[in-house]
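Exercise (ungraded).
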Amino acid sequence: MTMKASTRQVDGITIVDLSGRITLGEGSVVLRDTIRDVVGQGHKKILLNLGDVTYIDSSGIGELVSGFTSVRNQGGELKLLNLTKKVHDLLQITKLYTVFDIKDDEASAIAAFK
Amino acid sequence: MTVQRVSYTLDSSLDSVNKAEEEATKVATRAGFDEDETGRISMAVREAMVNAVLHGNHYDPNKRVSISFEMTGNELVITVQDQGAGLDVDNVADPLAPENLLKQSGRGIFLIRAFMDEVRFRKLEPGTEITLIKRVHAAASDHKEASQ
């Protein structure tokens, strides 16, 4: 299953709902392009909903890190929402769990931007 | 002792990475690994294949990647060979070091080592061979025997 990304706006926050696999190739490119488009439209508060992401490889992790730093460098914030156990474990062993602001529910994630 | 070995020679493409990952899932499941362990083995194989195809062979259509899966006793031994310039594994940066934490790449070998019991590198002429070893733990072996 390839990756899909759709965006919606809630209280000034851009929520990107991702599903499928974020891996080298199409998945990583979709994520990169989506974040670039959202930032290009002037939205700098971004919440990536990873609830339906079934798999991430090291390239996908790199794309998350790259998105995080590029949004931050432009004065914005990127947070993660709804990690599956697999993704949670990956971020933990790569020590990125403490780098990202990770939330378990959408309402508290949105509130955390304010 | 039964030894089962299967090997493939593949193009330097993303399709090959995906095929190898799918084969790893099948082999690991057949060997008696549980779902979590199978997922870790498949990811280690994916990362080794990405290294071979992308960093080793640079997607060169004239270069091939070889992968083999061998079940020997309680060990699953997987080797991946590329035809690239060779990997200097001693100079691979630690992705957990504070200065590397926010780098986009450089986590593949770290993840392979985290997910497998043993990882070996060997220089080829030309290329690199990586050997990934995972042992079936007692519970998985028992489950496999019980289901036969």
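Further reading is listed at the end of the chapter. For now, observe: Residues 20 and 35 of chain B are 17 Å apart (CA to CA). The first helix of chain B runs from residue 14 to 31.
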